[in-house]
Amino acid sequence: MPTGNTSAASSAGVSGTRSCNRDMPTIFRSVALIPAALVLAVAMHAPFALAAEPPTVPAAEIPAGWEPAWSDEFSVDGMPDPAKWDYEVGRLRNNEAQYYTRARRENVRVENGELVIEARKEAFEGAEYTSASLVTLGKMQWTSGRFEVRAQLPKGRGMWPAIWLLGSSCPTAGWPRCGEIDIMEFVGHAPGIIHGTVHTEAYNHIKHNQKGATVTLDDPHGTWHVYALEWRAKDLRWLIDGREYFRYDDDGSGVASWPFAEPEYLILNIAVGGAWGGQKGIDETIFPQRMRIDYVRVFKRISD
Ligand SMILES: [Ca+2]
């Protein structure tokens, strides 16, 4: 359970308990890089030829030292691209109150250039709430990169949205040995406080020594912010709107503290209630609530 601290290590554990309690395929394709740099190079010379091409990261928004590797700009209305996204389904972890649905428009859709994940109060499969959890599991995984997610968060007591990475080895290695990187976590009963946290075998909520930090934002619900992680060979760095606020270094002691040589996949979800999100109950008047995501971009380091 959370320590109650508002700085380091405050997201204690709750996030950690949610992992690995479902079947997952064990085979993944290796990391495949979209040749976005090539597309951009072509675009510079033939801008009108790209009308039918999938949108790519605008050149001005590529961070120095990185190149686009994978992204979703959510530019096509409808359901999320099944080539990029899969779903968690059902009631999974942390005693959360929502039922995660699969590709159900009420809970997930792309509209107006944004991915919308919507938590609703409605009876469904024995649960009182529905929501969605999108994963790249089986589609894409990474062992490094800069991850940028531009988002507006849901609001209100009982909300527990997250943008996070989980080790693909979870089913075999177990949690927390497989490693979890929480790029952004938020609970509605602690307004404005954004958590970035890492869980490993050496550092996790069970031992009350998980590593993390927080940033307080005035209005993460009505304003856009870019929640980012730089995952490098020997360190992880958390940034909001380009400003680094936490860093976790490989201490060289092995996989117990640095499981991040192995691939992880991305998860975007809104939980309702649960061990942490529901700590102060669920305000039933707030529904529906949405997490809006303008884009997810993953960049590859050009050089260190
Ligand atoms: Ca967009």
How would you sum up this structure, described in words?
- The chain is mainly β.
- It has one domain (15-301): Jelly Rolls.
- Helices cover 6% and strands 37% of the residues.
- The protein contains 3 helices and 17 strands.
- The chain has helices at 36-45, 170-173, 274-277; strands spanning 66-72, 86-87, 98-100, 108-111, 114-124, 127-131, 133-135, 145-152, 159-167, 180-185, 193-199, 211-216, 225-231, 235-240, 243-249, 264-272, 289-301.
- The strands form 2 sheets. Strands 1, 3, 4, 5, 6, 8, 13, 14, 15 and 17 form a 10-stranded mixed sheet that branches. It has a 7-stranded antiparallel sheet with strand order 2-7-16-9-10-11-12.
- The longest helix is centred in the first third of the chain and has 10 residues, at 36-45.
What labels would you give this structure?
6% helix, 10-stranded mixed β-sheet, 304 residues, 37% strand, mainly beta, binds calcium ion, 7-stranded antiparallel β-sheet, Jelly Rolls
Give a short synopsis of this structure.
By secondary structure, the protein is mainly β.
SSE sequence, one letter per element: HEEEEEEEEEHEEEEEEEHE
How is the biggest beta sheet arranged?
Answer: 10 strands, mixed
CATH architecture tag? Sandwich
Enumerate the spans where pLDDT stays under 50 for 5 or more consecutive residues.
1-52
| Ligands | calcium ion
Number of helices: 3
What is the averaged pLDDT score?
86
> At the first level of CATH, what is the class?
Mainly Beta
Count of the domains: 1
Number of strands: 17
Rounded to the nearest angstrom, the radius of gyration is 18 Å
By CATH, the topology is: Jelly Rolls
**DSSP strand (E) fraction?**
35-45%
- Globally, the shape reads globular
Classify the helix fraction into a percent range: under 10%
Distance between the termini: 37 Å
What class would the helix/strand composition place it in? Answer: mainly beta
